[in-house]
Amino acid sequence: MKRHFPFFYGYGMLAAVWCIYFCVFGTVLYSTSVINAGMQQAMGFSERYIGLAGTLCTLVSGLVGPLVGRLISKRGVRLTFLIGSAMVIASSLALAFLPQSVFSFLLLYGLVVGAGMGFAGLVSVQSAVNDWFDRKKSFAMAIVLTAGSVGGFMAPQIVERLLSAGDWTWGWRYVAAMAGVALVVSLLFIVNRPEDVGQFPDGLPPAKREKGAAQDGEEEGPPDRKAFVLILFSYATRTYIYYSIMAYLVIFLRYKGFSSAYGADCIALISLFSLAGRLLMGVIPERRVPANVTLGLGNIAVGAGGLLICLFDGSLPIRIGAAAFGVGVGFVTVALPLTVSRAFGQRRFAGINGKLSLINYLLAAGGPAIVGQTAAWLNDYSLPLGFSAVLVIAGGVAAFFLRLRKES
């Protein structure tokens, strides 16, 4: 039976999608660094295998993107949210309750959890926002993407306390419970598109929406290859260091003499300041500060924060580095899709963004494995992580050379 609402349900969708993103992506991504550190101590897994599992998780979450996009086009985001949540539940419970080996860890965490994050992650979230919002799309995107930061602020603290009271299996039980919440929300509150409930994007009929909406300028001819390469360079260098830091920060700080609890605090600090960066992006007027400029500044902040974490051993500079890293992540998360839209136009956004996402993960997913292998050779994380920080700064500088299309 077709549902109807006496109000614009886009804001209800925003709340539901926020909850799902918080429970799945925000929980899994930010808590696994703490869980992996616990598994390393208890199971004796080497940095090499933990890095390989992190690489597989990142790679698979990106590789399923085209499949997720096709399912969304045919069946809507509700199905992809359900599939992703169910996969995270099943794999997390298996990790918690079944005997584990290196092979099962790689299979369950690297492949199944990664696929679950891909189905219930950014592709589905951005598609839901795109379907329900037009004029208010940038503001809605900034709001919903704060869920990852809030989840990241809470998850490391909760998981660290669970591991202190029990063992590493409690971390995976927590992940499964949060994914269960996402599954219920998907079943009860997700509506695929506005027309399914007799509504329109932004709650406005087409005539009113088109009259008030700012449209991206469209140009004939092939897409700008230079713009594609520059955006990809900025995107991939940020992804490379981000997943490497998330995989190894707790372990790296233990090498520096800090406790796992301190490492969890730093991850939470990254999440908190990432939230601030995303909220700030929601209020920065794009006409005054172009999207490629905020993208470049975000990358540079990520790199500067990474260098502070790598080069200094004191608690204060490491915390400052975590804060700068987080603000940069927040800026890039919101600025990237806006930059793609402004560089290629709204009509080409979906296709270009899909290609960028796939190539980005193919290039950057090896970050945790490369960092782990290099650290094992050198018995030090500073050099591989510091090098990735320099790369992401270069990616930020590259973004300044982008030419964006003007609004018509």
Count of alpha and pi helical runs: 16
The SSE string, one letter per element, is HHHHHHHHHHHHHHHH
| Helix percentage range | over 70%
* End-to-end CA span: 41 Å
Radius of gyration: 20 Å
Low-confidence stretches: 210-220
| Helix-strand makeup class | mainly alpha
Query: What average pLDDT do the residues reach?
Result: 84
Largest sheet: none
Looking at the structure, what is the overall shape? globular
Strand fraction band? under 5%
Q: In total, how many beta strands?
A: 0
Notable traits:
16 helices; mainly alpha; globular; 408 residues
Topology:
Elements lengths: L9 H34 L3 H17 L1 H11 L1 H21 L4 H18 L2 H11 L4 H29 L3 H21 L16 H7 L12 H31 L4 H24 L7 H21 L3 H30 L4 H16 L2 H12 L3 H18 L9
Helix pairs in contact: 1-6, 1-7, 1-8, 1-10, 1-11, 2-5, 2-10, 2-14, 2-15, 3-4, 4-5, 4-8, 6-7, 7-8, 7-11, 7-13, 10-11, 10-12, 10-13, 10-14, 10-15, 10-16, 11-13, 12-13, 12-16, 15-16
Structure description:
With 408 residues, the protein is an all-alpha fold. 79% of the residues lie in helices and 0% in strands. The protein contains 16 helices and no strands. The chain has helices at residues 10-43, 47-63, 65-75, 77-97, 102-119, 122-132, 137-165, 169-189, 206-212, 225-255, 260-283, 291-311, 315-344, 349-364, 367-378, 382-399. α4 runs antiparallel to α5 and α7 (137-165) runs antiparallel to α11. The protein is globular.
